[in-house]
Amino acid sequence: MKINFKDLILFENEDFLVVNKPPHLATLDERTADRGGSVLRLAKEYNSELQAAHRLDKETSGALAFAKNPAAYRHLAMQFEHREVTKRYHAVTNGIHKLDSISVFLPILPLKNGTAVKIDRSEGKVAETIFNTLQVYRGYTLVECIPITGRMHQIRIHLSCLKAPIVCDPQYGGEVIYLSSLKRKFNLKKETEEQPLIQRVALHAHSLSFAVMDGERVRIEAPYPKDFEVLVKQLNKFGM
After folding, report:
1. Per-residue pLDDT tens digits for 192-227
2. Is the predicted pLDDT of residue 36 greater than 70, yes or no?
3. How does DSSP classify residue 238?
4. pTM of the prediction?
5. 166: DSSP letter
C-alpha cells in the first residue's frame, strides 16, 4: 500500500513537522535488510532535511515529531531530555481497571537480544508512567498513558505490571480481542476462523505537546487510525 506522506501531516511550521504515524511502519530504517521502508524514508522524500526527534514502535500508531533544521532538532531534543514534552497515549487493555493518576515507577532493562525489556531493580534504568482510565468496558479498559521517561516498551511493560496488559501484546501478557468476546449473539460462518478486532498491540500516541522555537507550546492530536477506531467503536457498541 502506497502511503502519501502529505496525508500523514498533522502540524507543520518552518521548524517542525508532526505526522500521524501509521501502524506497522518503522520510525527509522531497520538495521536488517529492507523490510518495507520507514516513516523517516518517506519524510526525507518530502523534505531531505527532516530528522526524527523521537521514535514510536513499529506497531504503535500516532503523533511523531520531526525537526526541519539542526537548531530545531536540538531545541526539541533538549525538551525530551528535560522531560518537557508531554506525550499522551491511548491503550486498550485486558481486564477492568480503575486507574486515577496511578504512577508506575519501575526500572527497565532491555534484554540482550534487543527485542524486549524486563523490570530490573538493580540494573534497570529509571522509568515512570502515569495512567488514567478513560473508559471501562466489559472485560476491557481504555487507558490514557503518560510516559514521563522514554524507555523502550515502557508503557507496555508498566501496564503489564499493573496486571493490565495491552490487548494483542503477547510479549507482555496481552491477549487477543475478538468480537465474539463482546457480542452476546455472535455467528461465525462455518469453516471460517474469527479474526481479531486488531492485529497489533493496541497502543496509539494520541497527542504530543512541546514548545516551538519562540517558546509557545503547541499540542497536536493524532486521530485514531482505522484499526484502533474500529476497535474502540466495537467496544462502545457491544462492550458497555
Report:
1. 788 999 999 999 999 999 999 999 999 999 999 999
2. no
3. H
4. 0.94
5. B
Do 95 and 131 contact (CB within 8 A), yes or no? no
Distances (CA, A) of 235 to 128, 170, 177: 28, 20, 10
List of long-range contacts for 105-111, beta carbons under 8 Å, 24+ apart: 106/157, 106/158, 106/161, 108/151, 108/152, 108/153, 108/154, 108/157, 110/152
Task: Quote the CA–CA distance of 2 and 22 in Å, as a whole number.
Answer: 12
Residue 37: exposure state from Cβ atoms within 10 A (0-12, 13-18, ≥19): middle
Q: Is 57 a catalytic residue?
A: yes
β-pair partners for 143:
91, 133
Residue 146 phi/psi, 5-degree rounding, is -120, 100
- Residue pointed to by grid coordinates 484499526: 227
- Quote the CA–CA distance of 70 and 98 in Å, as a whole number: 43
Catalytic site residue from 15, 57, 214, 227: 57
Q: Give me the amino acid identity at 45.
A: E
Give CA–CA dist 152/171, Å, rounded. Answer: 13
Predicted confidence (pLDDT) per residue in 82-112, tens digit: 999 999 999 999 999 999 999 999 999 999 8
Taking residues 29-56, report their average pLDDT: 86
DSSP sequence for 69-96: SHHHHHHHHHHHHTT--EEEEEEEEES-
Picking from 220, 212, 219, 200, the residue whose alpha carbon sits closest to that of residue 92 is: 200
Q: Residue 134 is placed in which grid cell? A: 478513560
